Structures are given as C-alpha cells and as structure tokens.
Amino acid sequence: MQRRTLLKAFALSASVMAMGLSFQAYAADTIKVGIMHSLSGTMAISETPLKDVALMAIDDINAKGGVLGKKLEPVVVDPASNWPLFAEKARQLLAQDKVAVVFGCWTSVSRKSVLPVFEELNGLLFYPVQYEGEEMSPNVFYTGAAPNQQAIPAVEYLLSEDGGGAKRFFLLGTDYVYPRTTNKILRAFLHAKGIQDKDIEEVYTPFGYSDYQTIVANIKNSPPVAKRQWSPPSMAIPTYRSTKSWLTRV
C-alpha cells in the first residue's frame, strides 16, 4: 500500500506541475484536484478505494508542503455508476470547480463518456486501470495495460505447455466496450495460433449480473477449457463464488 500511495502522490504532483497552471489557478490559495469515481451503484466496490487512495496521496503531498508552494484541494464527485452522469460531473469539475487535473473513471464506457468533455475544455484526466487500446488522446493519461501487455501474454501462457496447452477458450465478460474489444483482439490472436472459432466461446452479461450458476455449469460440463473473464470486481466476485467448487484450467 505504501508503494501505491507514493506512486499516486508522485502522479498527482507531476500531473499538476505538467498542466502549467493558469493565472487564475496560480493566483488561488490552493490547487484543486478533481476526484471522479463512483461512490454508489454497481461500480462503487471498485472505485471507492481509488477515491480513498487519491485522498491519502493528497494528504501526503500537503503534509510535505504541497505543489509549487500551494496545498492541493480535493474536489470529490460521485457519478454513481451512471455513464451519462460521468460526463456531467466532468464538465462540472472543469468548468465550474476549475480543477487543474482529474483522477477518475474505471470502465471504458465511463472514460468514453467523459472524453469529449475533456477534449472540448482541454482538461487532463488520469485514467487508472487497464483498457482495450484503440484510443489515444492528448487529454488522457492511460496508466493501465493494453491487451498486448496483459490479455495476450496471459493467453500465450495458457497455450504453452507450462500453462496447460489449452485448446479451447471460454471468454466471459460484462457487456460493454472493454470486454468486447479485448475479446475481438484475443479471437484474432487465437486464430493466428491455430485455434478455430468452434473452440472459442464468448458470453457477455449485463452490469450487476450475479446469476452465474448456469454459465459455470455449461463450462463445467464441456471439454477442458481455459476461461478468461473481463469484468469489474463487482461482477467477478459472483463468478468466483460459483466456480469455487470445481477446478478450471486457468
């Protein structure tokens, strides 16, 4: 936790300095930092800890004198796991609260919801988790891994002798852009490795879905299969509970 906190603190300091403070921001008594994570709704279990770590980092920076001689002032908003509301909250932080930088989002759909706002108002977003790639913006720091850095190495291992030499794959994900795009990339990669479509199955569930017993039963009753899941923790937990009674080759 200490290492993560230090990294977060460094990112906060570097991002605020890299922004090049406007005269208005420089003249203010504090430097405002937006924190835009869901504190309620489906994604709260994942995003609330990110808010907590950001506040810890801000406290640590302020205890050491702040940035450019000024204390950081957190401005916390709750988009409530509502994708259109993310865009509204982003506009509020940038246009009304005049924050210098925003740390926020988790899902790719929330990031894509706020991206036009950050580009229109020339704001800066630090995006904290892995993403599907195929997007680049000068207004976003993508701090997480793309599929070629995370998903493909995992599947390469499953294909290897050490990973069990998997020949069939079950790709399970929540029904939004990140799992679907990642699985599209993985399917193409598996084709290049000689795995045919008949040996690749994809299943998508809505946000908030928890009844995974039927899906797990289908996997259990099929020939040996390697399973990859791309879901937020709130959806992954029910899956883990459903699979704890049997062993998968993962």
UniProtKB/TrEMBL annotation:
This is Urea ABC transporter. Keywords: Signal. The lineage of its organism: Bacteria, Pseudomonadati, Pseudomonadota, Gammaproteobacteria, Enterobacterales. SUPFAM superfamilies: Periplasmic binding protein-like I. GO terms for biological process: amino acid transport. Coiled coil: none annotated. Residues 1-27 form the signal peptide. Gene3D superfamilies: 3.40.50.2300.
